[in-house]
Amino acid sequence: MKLRTIHAATLAAALMAGAAMAQTSTQTSAQTSGPAPYVSSDTYRDQRSLPTLDPSDPKSRDAWLQARGEAYRRAPDSAQTEQELRTTQALNDEIAAQNTLADKADEAARLEHDAAVARYQIELRQTQERARAEAEATRAAQNQYDRDYAAWRDQVQRCQSGDRSACATPAPRPR
Q1: Average per-residue pLDDT in the chain?
Q2: Alpha carbon of 47 to those of 54, 63, 67, 90: distances in Å?
Q3: DSSP secondary structure string, the chain?
Q4: CA distances from 71 to 47, 59, 62, 138 (A)
Q5: Which pLDDT score is estimated for 92?
Q6: What is the pLDDT of residue 3?
Q7: How confident is the model at residue 1 (pLDDT cuts 50, 70, 90)?
Q8: Minimal CA–CA distance to 152: which of 169, 140, 165?
């Protein structure tokens, strides 16, 4: 209940302040006859121009970061407490352990990939050899068929030309 009262009071104060500001701004704008001056949408933004950034110069980078309100400077170990040093060392050790695990996982994945590639290459060679052997067997069978067919056509032609001995011989059977 007390919390609701505080929120209600804060809200009421904010609304009253907003109304007072709106009234003041209309009175001020009515007093000025010229065009309204440019007002940035973000009144809290730092309007100073940033220094030029030279990526190869650390001092330029630091000046640029500082102008933006950002800066990183590693505190010397002497400026850190023992607890901060221990925490930093523990975090560094944890990161190093995670990096070692990631390296081991990467190495295992690389080895598995290399093994899979080797298996694929072996299977590919076997498949190519089998296809070559099957093509050679098919070619040999086709050549034999062509010879048998040519012999049969020759036999039929001899029979049709009157050679009775060629008519008595049966046609070659497929193998």
Answers
A1: 79
A2: 21, 16, 11, 41
A3: -HHHHHHHHHHHHHHHHHHHHHHHHHHHHHH--SPPPP--S-TTS--SPPPPP-TT-HHHHHHHHHHTT----PPPGGGS-HHHHHHHHHHHHHHHHHHHHHHHHHHHHHHHHHHHHHHHHHHHHHHHHHHHHHHHHHHHHHHHHHHHHHHHHHHHHHHHTT-HHHHHSPPPPP-
A4: 19, 11, 7, 77
A5: 94
A6: 46
A7: very low
A8: 169
Where b means 16+ CB within 10 Å and e means fewer, 132-157 reads eeeeeeeeeeeeeeeeeeeeeeebee
pLDDT of 18 over the 80 cut = no
Is 151:143 a contact under the CB 8 Å cutoff?
no
What local confidence, expressed as pLDDT, does residue 93 receive?
Answer: 96
Terminal CA-to-CA distance of the chain, rounded, Å? 102
Cβ neighbours, 10 Å, residue 67 = 15
Q: Residue 71 above 80 pLDDT?
A: no
pLDDT digits (tens, 9 = 90+) for 87-141: 989 999 999 999 999 999 999 999 999 999 999 999 999 999 999 999 999 999 9
What the block records as the tokens of 69 is: 């309100």
